[in-house]
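Exercise 3.2. Students should predict the tertiary structure of the chain below and write it as structure tokens, then compare their answer with the key that follows.

Predict this chain's 3D structure.
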Amino acid sequence: MVTRLEQTNNIKVILNLKEHPSVDVSATVIRDACENFFSKICKNVPGKFYSGRRELHPIRQDARKVVKAIKHLYPDLYSSESVRKLRDFARCPELTEAFLALQKGIKPKKVDIGNSGTYFVLDRQKRPIGVFKPKDQEAGTEGNRKGIIGPIRGVEVGKCYQRERVAYLLDRHHFARVPKTVIARLPRSYFEEQTARKPELTKGSFQRFVPSAIHARGNPISTEDLQRTAVLDFRILNQDRHLKNLLLDKKGRARPIDHGFALQLDALDLRFEWLDYSQTKEPFSKKILAYIEKIDTEKDLKLIQRRIPTITKSNLLRFKFASLLLKKAAKRGWTPHQIGTLMINRFESHIFDPSKTSDAEIDRHLEKILTNSLH
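Answer key:
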């Protein structure tokens, strides 16, 4: 049974700094306190680290409090390695399990699928626990191992890892069941040859592994799950939804993955392969209609801007058009098949109009598009 770990005196000082701002604590003391706290977690918690493990929740809460206090009072230390390890444990314990496995010399396993560098990160029993995609090996980058180097039309090269994270965050309330995805830093030497010119750690997206999953292609999938995935894909303007990156977990539930080609520089090549399923011609369920109605487009726009600092105003406007189109079409009784077909054929050429930026202009434009599309 895992109980709340006893806090060191230094950790207590950090947690009490807001109440005692006159206390002078050096950067070295803070880093050492975080390192000691993390070491205590690793040594005293038996078994595997994973997000669903309830016994870890109180310890993760303590770690969150420490990290939050440091971010507020000592922002310069927030990105330090000692704080980062605590932060990783608090938000995604699988990263701690991966760290311990790497310490034991258990190397990630390269996956020969897709256009970007992809690796299964293993736990201490040598089983996959996460999927890591280094930003330096994304399609189009110089480090791509599959020869896909240079500009890719409509894609912001080297920033796909940010899209992976944002797709997870936009999946509010885990509605479409995108596996937990965070931005992580792992030792570069496990993924490429280490050189003096490159940082010791490489950044990329880390997504929780879905065990015992199969591809949706050739397998039955529920109408409800198809509709949940469709809502996500419409909103993130997905250019790469095929049925091999729509997984079915061991309970048969859809788990969409691979969102690096979402929210990209244009929407010329939208791809919704689930349109081949006849169930997409059925109306949205009441539950999904209620979810669509509650989508807060302005809140989501702020989230995207915060998480993808390089995203253009034009692309933010595309997201707004897509979200509002979904809300309006669903309210009119349109099916996922009707919305998807319209977006694939006409989004960039007719639906998206960069000259219309105010809510009133967009509203009138979309109403006209939907009305004319019925004739």
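Discussion points: The chain has three domains: 9-91, 105-208, 214-373. The beta strands are 109-111, 118-122, 128-134, 181-187, 201-208, 214-215, 246-248, 254-256.
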